[in-house]
Amino acid sequence: MSADDELFGRIGAELTKRPGWRFEPSTTPGGLPSWCFDPAGTVLQSVNVIDGTITLYIPSEDWEVPIDDLEGLLRWIDARRTTST
Fold it and tell me: Residue ranges of the domains in the chain?
């Protein structure tokens, strides 16, 4: 198992504990799977790992957020949830 796979698995173990998060396999050959937040059927955030970097993507803003570690990801998600309506 690669370091990216291990980190992706740790992310999934944390995100599956949270309502609205699910695993989304890639439908594109060679594409990466993601952990997606889609509480109403529309992806609001997705997370993947590329070359050891966690990337959170917000489709509605076409914005990628590089995040240093799992704890930083969870803090970012928690802060965004408390400031969103």
Answer: 3-23+35-83
